[in-house]
Every structure is written in structure tokens, then in C-alpha cells.
Write a structure and sequence with these properties.
The complex is a heterodimer of chains A (249) and B (209). Chain A is α+β, with helices and mostly antiparallel strands and 249 residues long. Chain A has one domain. Helix content of chain A is 41%, strand content 24%. Chain A contains seven helices and eight strands, in the order ααββααββαβαββαβ. In chain A, the strands form two sheets. In chain A, strands 6-7-3-4-5-8 form a six-stranded antiparallel sheet. In chain A, strands 1-2 form a two-stranded antiparallel sheet. In chain A, β3 and β4 form a beta hairpin. The longest helix of chain A is centred in the N-terminal third of the chain and has 31 residues. With 209 residues, chain B is an alpha+beta fold. In chain B, 42% of the residues lie in helices and 22% in strands. Chain B is built from five helices and seven strands. In chain B, strands 1-6-7-2-5 form a five-stranded mixed sheet. In chain B, α3 runs antiparallel to α4. Classes of the chains: A alpha+beta (249), B alpha+beta (209).
Chain lengths: 249, 209
């Protein structure tokens, strides 16, 4: 009688173990279900967003002083941002102060929904990939390192972290791939193609450039904290508030 | 037990259920409580197992359904957004309305609202604009009120497109499941000087059950 009871108890304990295993499997299925699809959908969205941003940059009108259309008075002269870029390339093979400001302010408007959380690089790279015609970084920079070094939930960094735009002429075309992207985590990129024409050539003999936008979640990347002093990046600050010097003066 | 054996002969019971069953009806053994009572310790893990299994099963089913709804909302949102923004440029309110009519099918699975803002608008207010200042009549699918913050063309027509399912809930601050997305668009507007200009805008979209 005793051994019969023990056998029944063992059977039920085995049953409990089998059910526990099934429940654990169900639990892990529940926790993980949809994760991959979520990631995929987020990735689609990020890529769509980056591609749309590039399209908007190529359609947009700006004030020829480089200011945003919203900030300017009505009697200013408007042009396409892309037209100003092509004009500058045809003149000097580099972008003027006004065009740099216009590109920065346009991207600031376009990427406004994620302005607090992402950093990005906008570039125009010769299709033969030998040099950047234009490379701009938009990064979050700490204006008071002492405050930023303090850790803890009570420290409000919004007062000391500022969005800054840098125009760079790097010595090496691999700076993004080798010195930024490996430390940035997931990078969502989109590229397009534009053709610029030099003064001595005809329209049909234009030089193709890759126009790209790469975005990543803002984080502390050493090279991006020292853009102004890093000779390899060779960057200068784009000040959206200041007025560009008159080239004829 | 004696009465049982009195009604059914003992030999018959032994033949029918075997020796053990026959003895169950016939005589009481030492320490024997009863067919259920005797197995009580083994019943406890079985009951616990069944409770555990059905609880986890129902929770898993509910999470599965809820995640499926989320995924469907997000994919619906992506496909609707691709139609609404087109090639990321909106040249006129008529073009916007044509795209809106394409998306706004009668049996669309989710309710949604799309609106275009000027790029300098504070996007922290977007959900308030959709929940408090905009609503659509589920019966007619005609907007009852539209937020003043949405971008408008020169004839004061808002860049707004909405669809409310007839049996769905209205969007409110208590709506639990919704998806909100932003897309950059270039939009042609008439400036105060009378000149048309293409300016950056943000298309905000919200989709809910």
C-alpha cells in the first residue's frame, strides 16, 4: 500500500516537472515573440526616415543667406539648397558659409523629431570614393564637463548639453567607417546620388557624388568630443546664429 | 462494505475488477482512507501543474494576441505612411487629399490620423492636438473638430487626414494601444509675399485600434 502511494506521488511530481518545462518554454516564447519583427519594423522606419530626409534636402528652398525660410523676412531671395550646392561646387569646388549654414539648418528642421536622441553625419562623397566634398557632423556636446561627469538621476544634463554642427575636411576618407561607426552601435544610413558640374565641363560630363545620411543614437564617442582639435577630422564649427562674411568685402 | 458484498457476490466482483478491486468492496484495510483520500498527496502536484499550465497558457495567449495587434498596427502604419508621403513632397492640398482618399478605405483595419506640421512646431504638443483638439465622427467619418496647429494652405484647408472605425474607440489620453510616427516631408506653401516656396515639414501619424 505504502509503495503504491509513493509511486503515485512520484508520477504526479514527474507530471509537475513536465508541465513546468512546458510552462517555461511558453514563458520564453511569450517574452521573445515579436522581438525580431519589432526590430525589423523599427529598422524599416529608420531607413525610411533617413531616405526621406535626403529627399527633403534635395527638394527644399532656403534663403540665400543660409537662414531658415521660417526665420527669414519675406523679401529675401530664395533658392533650392541643391542649386546652391551645385553653384558653389562649380565656383570653388567647396561649399560656401551660406550653403553650410543652410544644410545644417535644413537637417535640423528635418530631423527635429529625434533631435534630442540622435547624432548624425551628412556627407557628399566623390563616387570614386577618394575625397569628401562635404562632411557635416551634428553631435551633442557637453558645455560643462564637470557637470556631465557627475552621474546619477538627479543631474539635469539638458542645460549643459548642446547640439553642435561641424563642417569637416578629413585627411582620410575612411574616418566614418573606422573612427565613428564602430563605436556608435547601430547606424541607420541612406544614400542617394547627385551630379555636380565643373565650370569647364558640360552638364553631361558631371561628376557623380554619393549623398549620404548616417544616424545613430547619441553616445559618448571620444573622437566626436574632440572634433575641433582633431587634425585628422579637420573640423570647424558651423554657427547657425552668426552672419556669414561677405566674400566680396 | 458488508452490504455491498451482500448485494453483489464477492466472487463476481473479483472476476469483474480483479482481485484488488474486489477486496476494495469487500474489506477495509489498515490505513486506507478511500480512493481519493488515499491519493491526496499525489493530487496536489497534479492540481498545481494544471493551474500553472492554464495560467501561463492564458497569459501567453493574451500577450501573443496583443503583440500581433501591435505588429499589425506598425506594418499598417508603415504602408499607409508610404502612400501618404509619396515621394516625400506634397505640392498642394488636393494632392494630399487624393492620397488620403487612397488610404481611407471603408474597411481599413485601424483608425488613424495624419497631419502635417511646419518643421519649427514643438512636437511635444502633437498628442494633445490629436486627442483633445481633433475628433472624427465614427458614423460619417467626417472630422468634428480639427486642431488649429496643423499646417493649412492659403484657403485655410488643413493638411489633415483621418479615419475612425465605426466600432472602434475614439483616440483619447486613455487610449492604451497606439502607434505614433513622424516623417519628414517637403511641402509647398504660399509665403506672405505671395511667393510659393518648398519648406520642410513634419508629417505626424497616429494609429490605434
Amino acid at each position: 500500500m505504502n509503495s503504491r502511494g509513493q509511486a503515485a506521488l512520484m508520477d504526479s511530481i514527474f507530471f509537475l516537472m513536465i508541465v513546468s518545462t512546458i510552462c517555461t518554454t511558453l514563458f520564453f516564447f511569450m517574452v521573445n515573440y515579436g522581438g525580431q519583427v519589432d526590430k525589423q519594423v523599427s529598422s524599416f522606419y529608420s531607413r525610411d526616415f533617413a531616405a526621406d530626409s535626403l529627399k527633403v534636402v534635395s527638394y527644399i528652398n532656403i534663403v540665400r543667406t543660409g537662414d531658415s525660410v521660417f526665420a527669414a523676412a519675406d523679401n529675401y531671395e530664395y533658392d533650392y539648397l541643391l542649386a546652391m550646392m551645385k553653384e558653389d561646387y562649380a565656383d570653388k569646388k567647396e561649399f560656401s558659409c551660406e550653403t553650410r549654414k543652410a544644410a545644417a539648418s535644413t537637417l535640423q528642421s528635418v530631423l527635429k523629431p529625434f533631435d534630442d536622441s540622435i547624432d548624425y553625419a551628412f556627407y557628399l562623397l566623390n563616387e570614386s570614393q577618394t575625397e569628401y566634398l562635404f562632411l557635416m557632423f551634428a553631435v551633442h556636446e557637453c558645455t560643462d564637463p564637470a557637470v556631465c561627469k557627475q552621474s546619477g538621476a538627479n543631474v539635469d544634463l539638458s542645460e549643459v548639453v548642446r547640439r553642435r554642427y561641424y563642417y569637416c575636411k578629413p585627411q582620410n576618407k575612411d574616418v566614418l567607417e573606422k573612427q565613428v561607426f564602430p563605436y556608435a552601435g547601430q547606424v541607420d544610413s541612406s544614400v542617394g546620388k547627385v551630379t555636380f558640374t565643373q565650370p569647364e565641363t558640360r552638364d553631361t560630363q558631371g561628376i557623380p557624388f554619393v549623398m549620404g545620411l548616417s544616424m545613430w543614437v547619441s553616445k559618448d564617442i571620444t573622437v566626436l568630443n574632440t572634433l575641433q582639435t582633431n587634425r585628422e577630422f579637420n573640423c570647424i564649427l558651423i554657427d547657425l546664429e552668426s552672419i556669414c562674411p561677405n566674400p566680396s568685402a | 462494505m458488508g452490504t455491498v458484498s451482500g448485494i453483489i457476490p464477492r466472487e463476481y466482483l473479483i472476476d469483474m475488477f480483479g482481485k484488488k478491486m474486489g477486496s476494495f468492496f469487500v474489506r477495509k484495510q489498515k490505513g486506507f482512507i478511500g480512493p481519493i483520500g488515499d491519493d491526496l498527496p499525489s493530487l496536489v502536484p497534479i492540481v498545481v501543474s494544471l493551474l500553472l499550465f492554464f495560467t501561463i497558457f492564458s497569459v501567453t495567449l493574451s500577450v501573443y494576441n496583443s503583440k500581433n495587434t501591435d505588429i499589425r498596427e506598425q506594418t499598417d502604419m508603415l504602408s499607409a505612411a508610404r502612400i501618404m508621403k509619396g515621394d516625400s513632397i506634397i505640392l498642394s492640398i488636393d494632392e494630399f487629399k487624393t492620397r488620403c482618399d487612397t488610404v481611407k478605405m471603408k474597411n481599413y483595419p485601424s483608425s488613424f490620423m495624419f497631419a502635417v506640421y511646419k518643421a519649427d512646431y514643438d512636437l511635444g504638443e502633437v498628442m494633445l492636438d490629436f486627442t483633445n483638439e481633433t475628433s472624427i465622427d465614427p458614423a460619417t467619418n467626417i472630422p468634428e473638430k480639427i486642431s488649429k496647429s496643423f499646417l493649412r494652405d492659403e484657403s485655410d484647408a488643413p493638411y489633415f487626414c483621418g479615419f475612425q472605425k465605426r466600432i472602434g474607440n475614439r483616440l483619447s489620453s486613455s487610449t492604451r494601444s497606439y502607434v505614433i510616427r513622424y516623417y519628414p516631408v517637403a511641402i509647398q506653401v504660399k509665403l506672405n509675399s505671395g511667393v510659393y516656396s518648398i519648406v520642410p515639414g513634419i508629417m505626424a501619424m497616429v494609429m490605434w485600434e
